[in-house]
């Protein structure tokens, strides 16, 4: 059986961020290989101040400890636009693949782009969902300060990653720039409570799914009941952790762009053993890198040829995301 380390490589970004074009090309090639093989990598040498993220996690835990009635006041008031609080039962990610399952055993607090504009691009049509207003609890300004700071930290890393992705696809480094100049990425603090009773049959902390993003960046905790990815061979393997490292995975949009050269891999968050108790309490910080909602998802020229025709019809990124979100919130028979 393949081990997680054989499947999910750890890539040091420091040479790319601080070196010359040759160094950047070398790291970009490593990223391309990882995304072809498993769709996942762990990045170190990213230059982010992890204390900002640790502070975010601590403050988010304080919020999730609030009474449920108070948290529910912060649910999104725009259908299909995740903002503010998402509780247990509000989301079942397996539905995005048309697989029925009990609700995911998690709660989240979601932040959209803090500097969204007020013109029609941001408030009409798909923009109404992509740039829905953020919701914040009254009398708790520390939550907004911490989560917005984390949003911008991840956004900075995301910009570096997408440029390295362009190089890894034999494109100009700036090829994606005009597809992300009005990006509508979101950030989540997600809490997986400790479990003291058995879950319902088929119920997980997060059901098997692919991400409906370009890519996702995650800061995980080393506690029982963690993230697993399904390999191309159909095996489920645990995602290994590296000190100070972040997990990065391909989402549907980047897979669509690359004609499935890069894999949007199925993944899930498993339940901990019941005997783990409070030790299995988990808080994850997740940045979903999403391009402009009107970015056209069509096959990148370097990912097609006479023997590799485009596999997908062109679609706007925002429409793809809207369909997935709608599915994740539906009730299946």
Oligomer: single chain
- Distance, first to last CA: 36 Å
Proportion of beta-strand residues: 15-25%
As a percent range, the share of helical residues equals 25-40%
Radius of gyration: 19 Å
Which regions are unreliable across 5 or more consecutive residues at pLDDT < 50? none
Give an overview of the whole structure.
This protein is α+β, with helices and mostly antiparallel strands and 333 residues long. It has eleven helices and 14 strands. The strands form three sheets. It has an eight-stranded mixed β-sheet. Strands 6-11-8-9 form a four-stranded antiparallel β-sheet, with no helix packed on it. A two-stranded antiparallel ribbon has the order 13-14. A hairpin with a 5-residue loop joins strand 8 and strand 9 (236-238). The longest helix has 28 residues, at 141-168. The model has no long low-confidence stretch (mean pLDDT 91).
Topology (SSEs and partners):
Blueprint: H1 4-7, E1 10-12, H2 14-18, H3 21-37, E2 40-44, H4 50-64, H5 68-72, E3 84-86, E4 107-111, H6 120-123, H7 126-130, H8 141-168, H9 177-180, E5 186-192, E6 206-209, E7 215-219, E8 227-230, E9 236-238, E10 246-250, H10 252-257, E11 267-269, E12 282-289, E13 296-297, E14 315-316, H11 317-328
Parallel strand pairs: 1-2
Antiparallel strand pairs: 2-10, 3-4, 4-5, 5-12, 6-11, 7-10, 7-12, 8-9, 8-11, 13-14
Helix pairs in contact: 3-8, 4-8
